[in-house]
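W.,

You were right to be curious about this one. When I first looked at the sequence I had no strong expectations either way, so I just let the prediction run and decided to look at it fresh. Below is the sequence, 464 residues in total, followed by the output.
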Amino acid sequence: MNQTASAAPETDSSVKNLVPRIIPRAEHGISRKNISNGALRVLYRLHEAGYKAFLVGGAVRDLLLGGHPKDFDIATDATPEQTRALFRNCRLIGRRFRLAHVVFGREIVEVATFRGIGEAGDSDRHVVDGRIVRDNVYGSIEEDAIRRDFTVNALYYDISDFSVRDYVGGIADLQHRTMRLIGDPVQRYREDPVRMLRAARLAAKLEFSLAEETEAPIGELAGLLADVAPARLFDESLKLFLSGHGLESLRRLHHLGLLGELFPATARALAGPRSAEFGRLLGYTFTSTDERIRSDKPVTPAFLFAAMLWEPVRSLAERLVQEGSDAGAAWQMAVDRVVHQQAVRVAIPKRFVMAMEEIWSLQPRFEQRQRKRVLRLLAHPKFRAAYDFLVIRSHDEPELREQVEWWTEAQELDAKQLSEQLQSTTAASAMGEPARKRKRTRRRKRKNPGAQDGPGADAETVLE
């Protein structure tokens, strides 16, 4: 009987007794046609040189699910130096984990030597407060399998006979669409708290559930993320929100109690008096961003972060005004305070922070219709992002819809037509007469104006 993830071995003898479940080529759906040429070249060359070579991790998982992965990782018994000796186009990277990167044009194939169990006192394995900070202990494929995070990521495609090897019950969990940590969940989360975020992200991406024992400790251990470098948490945030399943990732984070560890002001706002409105704004924002990513359209992290911190900034500015501060000063104080507090958890790079502040600061300028101000706003580098944010806001703020309609039309006019319309509006206003409406040419109605192509008005709140 195979040992499974729930009974992951911890001693050398039990590891050696692991018996893999081997799925022959005829019984799985992985085809070499769906593996990149670069990955195949690395696999075959390692094999021909006498080394063991396996495709491993997310690529195997996704291929078995019928997907088309873009990144391919390889596990082997060759050391990084031995791998480099086989490929002139290879470079060694990493201090925490020594890896070989084999470069084929734009494709990078990552090659890792089988990880060993090792001991905390080994010179090549360093553990601080339960967290692994350096680990270059090499071992067998059995040891490598139990060192991986989730069972569905510990499946090995063997280039020697095209079979799939399963040492920890990953195939069964794949069939049951379950994410399960290998080994003791508490220990694995303490080794690397980011695994909690990875659990949420992969469950969202794959539409899997978390095994009960994998989910149970997260609430208690979520605070460990406070010890993770803010720069690393920014990278993890991008993986969570900019992979085409950002809305579901946000929901999983909120459900697991992890959102407050990354974006505490956002989590508080989602529990505040305007939680429903803010939740819908995030729902519109993340849905439109997911749609753009799936359509290979450009997106910017600044837009998402501007939405996530919008309600915290807005509510704080409103409170400062009520306390007697000038509106402009209150807004700037709110922006500074919220952004500063956020940087303690997730280090958003300055270029994105500046873009966020511009998106926010341009919102009141959409109320201005004077000719010079309109032309200046249209020429602003962040006009499109600010306009898209106005569109998102208008879904839940009906008073903004006239602004959206006006600015949508303004973008479709050439400079001469826009100037004429603005001049007639200004002249009519000076004479005390209502401005004549310009006769519009008939055109197909756009479902949702704006580059972000927001979701329809039936978007669900992010909390549901």
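Here's what jumped out at me. Residues 263-430 form a domain with the cca-adding enzyme, domain 2 fold (CATH 1.10.3090.10). And, maybe more interesting for your project: The first helix runs from residue 12 to 16.

Coffee later to discuss?

I.
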